[in-house]
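Quick one, tokens below:
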């Protein structure tokens, strides 16, 4: 009798679970109720502002006025504006220079961190400090360092007898661009380095050993990828190798 009671209870529990599952999966109104909050959030916080911005870009709307449709006149006026062209040029120069520096220096720093043996956890954590420092605080420190009147950079350069006058880091447009690129590189470099380091650490050691046994040099082991083209890149490689870009090339 006890076994029969247990079997009945188990069957009843399975039936209840099946009914609940059918209700949740097969009931269309319940499915709509679950996706409704996310749908309305996307509708009012993403889709509506996006559509409104498109209308503003194609109209002469002002604050408090609906405006009229003007087509591409706003874009044509922007292209004729010298301020817009200068802003676009500054954005392209800043983005290209900062991204190139962070990528190149980030890879170099990742290679260096990968080769560390002692205190690697401590050093990797310290590398992230520029990235985790609050932006407002780091901005004030860099502004003080390059401020024309009390610049610690100018003071250091003058005491090292490298210059004999104050350098206008921020008033000069070209030096200001250099300064902004430098600060952005300083802040973003740790993120690039740690991200690249994570990818380098994930590469199996056997790939480097296979490439090295096939005669690949440091540069070849760094640039090669798992492809038969590896064997065509250098006459020193008699067979194709499976290798991936890695800091072990410098070993």
């Amino acid at each position: 009798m006890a076994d029969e009671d247990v079997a009945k209870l188990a069957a009843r529990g399975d039936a209840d679970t099946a009914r609940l599952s059918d209700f949740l999966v097969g009931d269309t109104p319940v499915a709509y109720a679950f996706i409704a909050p996310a749908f309305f959030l996307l509708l009012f916080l993403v889709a509506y502002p996006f559509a409104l911005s498109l209308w503003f870009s194609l109209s002469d709307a002002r604050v408090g006025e609906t405006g009229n449709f003007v087509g591409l006149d706003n874009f044509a006026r922007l292209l004729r504006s010298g301020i817009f062209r200068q802003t676009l040029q500054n954005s392209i120069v800043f983005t290209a220079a900062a991204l190139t520096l962070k990528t190149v220096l980030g890879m170099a720093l990742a290679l260096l961190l990968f080769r560390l043996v002692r205190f690697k956890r401590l050093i990797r954590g310290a590398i992230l400090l520029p990235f985790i420092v609050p932006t407002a605080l780091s901005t004030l420190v860099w502004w003080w360092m390059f401020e024309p009147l009390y610049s610690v950079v100018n003071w250091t350069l003058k005491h090292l007898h490298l210059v004999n006058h104050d350098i206008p880091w921020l008033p000069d447009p070209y030096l200001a661009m250099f300064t902004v690129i430098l600060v952005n590189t300083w802040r973003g470099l740790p993120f690039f380095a740690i991200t690249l380091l994570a990818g380098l650490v994930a590469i199996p050691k056997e790939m480097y050993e296979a490439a090295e046994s096939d005669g690949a040099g440091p540069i070849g082991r760094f640039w090669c990828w798992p492809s038969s083209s590896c064997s065509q890149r250098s006459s020193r490689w008699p067979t194709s190798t499976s290798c991936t870009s890695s800091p072990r090339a410098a070993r």
